[in-house]
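With this grant's support, we have settled on a layout for protein records. An illustrative entry appears below exactly as we store it:
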Amino acid sequence: MKVILRQDYEALGHIGDVVEVKDGYARNYLLPRNIAYQATEGSLRVLEEEKRQNERRHEKEKKSADNLGATLSTTSVTLKMKVGEEDKLYGSVTSQMIAEQLEAQGITIDKRSIELEEPIKALGVYEVPVKLHPKVISTLKVWVVAE
C-alpha cells in the first residue's frame, strides 16, 4: 500500500514522502496514529496544507527561541553549594537546579533542554549549553559558589 507521511518518521522518511509499506503496517499502525495518509489525490492536497501550517508554526517557534536565546546569553545563574575539602561539592549541580534558579528569575525553561554532559561537582564558572530549538542553542553562565 502506498502512503504519504504526515510527519518525519525515522524508519520511513520525511514529511510528504510517498512510501510503499505492507498493508497491515499501514492499516494497523501508520493510519490510526496519524503518521501517514493513504496515497490519494485528496490526501495530497491536505498534506500540502499541513506542510504550510507546519512551516509557519516552526518559524514562530524559532523566532521565540531566538528571543529567549538572546535573553539567556546575557543571564547568569548563581548557585550556592556546600563544599568540603579542596572545594569539592557535597552533591552536585544538576540541570534541575539550574532550571529552578532560572524559574526564580522569571525565565521558564524545561530541564531537559539544559545540556549538561555530566553534573557539575566543583566550584567555578561554567558555560552551559541550552537547546531551545533544533536550530537554536544558547549558552548560559552558571556560577557555583561556596555557601
User: Anything to note?
Assistant: The first strand starts at residue 2 and ends at 5.
